[in-house]
Design goal:
With 368 residues, the chain is mainly beta. The chain has 3 domains: 108 residues, Immunoglobulin-like (Sandwich), CATH 2.60.40; 120 residues, Sandwich (Immunoglobulin-like), CATH 2.60.40.1220; 111 residues, Immunoglobulin-like (Sandwich). 5% of the residues lie in helices and 36% in strands. It has 4 helices and 26 strands. The strands form 6 sheets. A 5-stranded mixed β-sheet has the order 1-2-10-9-6, with no helix packed on it. Strand 1 and strand 2 form a beta hairpin.
Length: 368
């Protein structure tokens, strides 16, 4: 059964409707089958009544779908197809139950509007923010990225509406992130990479000079995650997440493996432990550092400890006596995006600052 509440008005060539749907399809029409209409079913919006060639500015110029009735809100991403006068919009990400969709259709010198969607499901809120990386509570002023991990897969497409950075007065910092349309989730949908705006971090750029860095040395900020953010099942988060961060001096020094402390295993079943001179990027430190012998990579488990200052390697098989290497790939970064041999914020006027990272650094150690 379709349940609907409809209110129509026509003024100045504008037709409007407000509808909430439960069921299969919703049809909104001004009057008669010949008039433009909007149809919604199974998460797909269809606008009928189009005639003539495709619009020069693309179908998204005549059919706009937002997850809000605020006209300043960004349009949803998706695919458009027209056939027989019907324009079909399929969202890139499935609409979340309980979140209204607002469609605007410009056709025949008039505008048709409708708000509709699937009703919210009664779902238990069990998903939580599992961790925020960097783990340390002291982040340099030029911190480049952070990672949020969740206890279960999350819905996509609303991350930047749900994450806020608050200053020490509780005010939201404006546009601290690079808001990438294709959010940077891992394949499991449980880890999100969030990039601070590098244009505000790099010295000498317009955004840095006009707006300053998102994080300011000597101050505290709060990273806050809105519990209304829904997981992949449509349920909201079980609780609000927040963490206070102290902002420290910017780090403008390349990653230096020669400063690391290596504790070689003292027995066949002991771990290899490497202590860094600073916290490193959580994700990259797990895949950009490896152990090799005779040119081959040793399989094993990697764990990061002490706020990403310690790297621990447990081999799948017992150590054999001999010579080994710790291979450090040049993609490894610290919290500010600095790499071995290369700064993220390079002063192009300083010839001593390299623009190319060291491809691989090999650190020898011996198992006796």
């Amino acid at each position: 059964m379709i349940a609907m509440l409809q209110q129509f008005r026509a003024a100045g060539g504008k037709l409007a409707a407000r509808i909430f749907v439960s069921g299969s399809a919703l049809l909104i029409a001004a009057c008669g089958a010949a008039e433009p209409a909007l149809t919604y079913s199974d998460g797909v919006v269809r606008a009928s009544g189009w005639s003539g060639p495709a619009p020069a500015d693309g179908w998204d110029s005549v059919l706009v779908v937002r997850a809000s009735d605020d006209e300043s809100a960004p349009a949803m991403l998706g695919d458009y197809v027209e056939h027989g006068g019907v324009v079909t919009f399929t969202p890139r990400f499935a609409p979340t139950p309980g979140v209204p969709l607002h469609a605007t259709f410009h056709v025949k010198h008039s505008t048709l509007e409708a708000t509709f969607g699937e009703p919210a499901k009664a779902l238990a809120a069990t998903t939580t923010v599992a961790h925020l990386y960097p783990s340390t509570d002291e982040w340099p002023e030029n911190t480049l990225k952070m990672y949020l991990t969740f206890s279960a897969p999350m819905a996509r497409g609303e991350a930047y509406e749900r994450i806020r950075v608050l200053d020490d007065q509780g005010r939201a910092i404006i546009e601290p992130f690079v808001e990438i349309e294709q959010e940077l989730w891992d394949t499991s949908g449980t880890r999100l990479t969030v990039l601070f705006d590098p244009g505000r971090i790099k010295r000498g750029l317009v955004d840095n000079e006009e707006s300053g860095p998102p994080l300011v040395v000597g101050r505290k900020v709060t990273i806050e995650v809105d519990p209304s953010w829904r997981d992949a099942t449509g349920a909201p988060l079980a609780e609000t997440f927040s963490r206070v961060i102290s902002v420290t001096q910017a780090v403008r020094d390349g990653v230096r493996p020669e400063r690391w402390t290596v504790a070689a295993p003292q027995s066949a079943d002991a771990d290899l432990v490497v202590r860094f001179d600073r916290p490193l990027d959580h994700a990259l430190a797990q895949r950009a550092i490896s152990v090799t012998r005779d040119g081959g990579r040793l399989p094993g488990r990697v764990a990061l400890e002490d706020d990403e200052r310690v790297w621990r390697f447990t081999p799948d098989q017992a150590w054999a006596p001999g010579d080994y290497f710790i291979a450090v790939d040049g993609v490894l970064e610290d919290l500010a995006g600095n790499r071995p041999g290369k700064l993220f914020d390079v002063d192009t006027m300083d010839a001593s600052q390299s623009t190319e990272a060291t491809p691989v650094t090999a650190i020898p150690f011996k198992v006796r």
